[in-house]
Amino acid sequence: MNAPVNPALVFDRRRVLAGGGALIVSFSLSGAYAQDAALKEPAKPEAAPKLPGSLEKTPYLDSWIRIDADGTITAFTGKVELGQGFKTAFQQIAAEELDVPFASLNVVTADTQLTANEGYTSGSHSMQDSGTAIQHAAAQVRALLLAEAARRLEVPEDELRTENAAVIASDGRKLGYGELVADNMLHVQAQPQSRLKDPATFKLMGQPLQRVDIPAKVTGGAAYVQDLRLPGTVHARVVRPPSYGAQLIDCDTSATGKMPGVIKVVRDGNFLAVVAKKEFQAIKAMAVLSTAAKWNETPSLPKPDDLPRVLTNLKSQDKTIFQQGAPPAAAARTLEAIYTRPYQSHGSIGPSCAIAQSLDGTMTVWTHTQGVYPDRQAVAEMLRVPLPSVHLIHVEGSGCYGHNGADDAAADAALIARQLPGVPVRLQWMREQEHAWEPYGPAMVTKLKASLDDSGAISDWNFEVWSNTHSMRPGGAGALLAAQHIAQPFAPPPPKPLPLPEGGGDRNAIPLYKFPNAHVVHHFVPEMPLRISAMRALGAYHNVFSIESFMDELALAADADPVEFRLRHLEDARGRDVINRAAQGFGWKKGQKAPRDHGYGFAFARYKNLAAYCAIATEIEVNSETGHPRLIRAVAAVDAGQVVNPDGLTNQIEGAIMQSMSWTLYESVTFDDTRITSIDWQTYPILRFNAVPDSIDVHIINRPGLPFLGSGETGQGPAAASIANAITNATGKRLRDLPLSRKRIKDAIDA
Amino acid sequence: MMTLKVNGRDHEIDADPDTPLLYVLREDLKLNAAKFGCGLGQCGSCTVMVDGKAAFSCVTPLLLLEGKQITTLEGLGTIDKPAPIQRAFMEEQAAQCGYCIAGMMMRAQALLQRNPKPTDAQIRAEMEPNLCRCGTHMRILRAVHRAARLMDTADASPAVHGSAQ
Fold first, then answer.
1. A251 CB-contact burial (10 Å; exposed 0-12 / middle 13-18 / buried 19+)
2. Same domain, B116 and B140
3. Could you say which of A12, A193, A401, A412 is the most buried, measured as most Cβ atoms within 10 Å of its Cβ?
4. Is A217 in contact with B125 (Cβ distance < 8 A)?
5. How many other C-beta atoms lie within 10 A of the C-beta of residue B10?
6. Does A687 map to a domain?
7. Do B88 and B157 fall within a single domain?
8. pLDDT score for A624
9. How close A149 gets to chain B, by Cα (Å)?
10. Which domain holds residue A102?
11. What tens digit of pLDDT does each residue of A27-51 get?
12. Is pTM, for the whole model, over 0.90?
């Protein structure tokens, strides 16, 4: 793919594509990877117009769309399917712009030997980065095919049309795409402008097509990395230390080594693992090895109840991230509040898994990592081998919702497989390992202070947030557990705040509402008492929970309707539209009163202040005797720009509401002074069917022709705040510490 | 060596009697549907049917399964001839990551075989042991209702009725 561009082809493209101006951007598969907020604004030549989406970093059309002489069409994405359904959405986009049948096209996802480096699949970036790149690449490929057909048929392009993977002339002559594509024809750089289809003519985009991955998933097909069976596969299990920083002081491996089926015991510093022929043999050997291992542990964890104080007292790097006006000397009324969030777990249903094989000088790892390229770099560094000798292939795993154990499991498998040349090693974590060792969503504290003027409008707004970073994802080996545990360890890299406008701990800390005076401070806390990293929505979950809870507190103080109060402070037209649509769909009425023990809540946000808009209205029932809360119904409105698959979008929003409800009502990582104590579903309870609401309605505001806006995380914050506001509406009490547990609600009612 | 009846066929299994059924299904019989989730009977992603009743295969040792009829999702239908429950989950698009879904479907199947017309409350109560982390619950419930309707109508595949004993 790094071959020099044929100048004639570039010339050709300049002739056939609108916008002209060849871009010379070097393409490199081994280029920079990105953290969560990256994939934007890379260094680029002066005055070069920006290419759409990920074409900016990977400009060759054949990195995205390949057409073979036999007519086989493949779309490539550097993003991974995590259950969001965008493999299907990408197929819709590519088929639409190419004018080929949906089923005729195959989508290949992240693979360090096949696809572009699109960094991590995170931050609701897939549609806007990869979806946009595929859309424009497909449109430009179609234009090239039209031009080629015009040349061969000797007719003007405007007498040609495309249909069903062929170019057809007005006289009926027809050339299939496979016939038209010559060797290097698509190996040309994208242009800034594409002749995109008129959204009014879309046949596939905007349609609720059924997902391509679901049939295998509901019939027992091989759908996950856990299902991959290479000939001669052996099974490995790791024995993790019992706590952070524990040192292995003694381990007699002789008993383990004699167990049935055991092939190898691996010990490298504090890294311990066992390999057996069969999976359950490996598990039994793991248990014996675990008993044999003697560890020296050091108490290092804070007291959970004291967490907000601990967090706000750690050394922080303080930055004013937004400043407008100056607070007035006097205000009619001033409110202050502190909101807190505990550590929370991704809690993937399937523990992390990977298969690694060291063969002919290449370490191949099949993994459900969210970023094959950055994880490859980390694994190569850990193994101390050259980058090209490591090959990472993404295969779906259980839903991850951020940085879970996926990358660590890939590293574990590689480290073990290195000791068994040629043999495929399948490693899966146990439930308690996933729960105890995954990097959690960070604990956070927010302090809010705002004043109302005589008219009941907010006159000044102060927001402070304390948080760790929200990404400790690999890039370097130090991010991997195995690399930290081996005898010659790699230190975790120093944490960095993720830059705005997307932000990390300060994601969505700047209000979208317009206040005459506003001041927002991010206290970035480098020290991490618990292992943390990216979890769905990052800081936006807590910041939106805080802002939208406080907006309700202010509305109540101003004796205003919460929906009307939000609209009073919001200029953004699309934001106003989703608020109105959600309120209308819910049947929200000013001055409404919920039935006894019921409450209505409302909340709104635009994810990252630049992705999808989402407003959610909820009805909650609270048992006044026990404090037990139950979400009765939720009505959401979402604007994600041009919609590609409305059912996929609805599924994402429904899921966001349910998952956020679970985080918000139940979830908190627990620990004593040394060990994590929430290590399974008993000790870390999540939503079960008895808490499922009666209904969730999602209203989509489609914006034909407008850019795709990431929507996978937009519901997390609004759902939390809407539920919190409904609980207040039902009980008359304000809860500000997550989770809003039954006990906390009961205590508030009794207070 | 013991004989295990899975999806209507006998299989000779060479594994320790304490081996949980899940590992035999996945490793010896190369069946994908039942998943390892917790190994503790807390999440239900390993759910299969044993003599028509939903069971956690991750905590059910082989020694308890002599002579029992084991049914996995693969035994209900195929991608070309899906069972009503499989059609229902496809039609409702009742999956996100889908890791929990095979277990959900087996628990629902066991309910529908016992009670072909369950109420919504009965479905919710029955599904309680199974966890979904993506938040696909509303669709799962709709799919179970749809499966009940499909099983009740003539257009359900006859092959499916045969295998779902």
1. middle
2. yes
3. A412
4. no
5. 9
6. yes
7. yes
8. 95
9. 39
10. 7-210
11. 333 333 333 333 344 444 456 789 9
12. yes
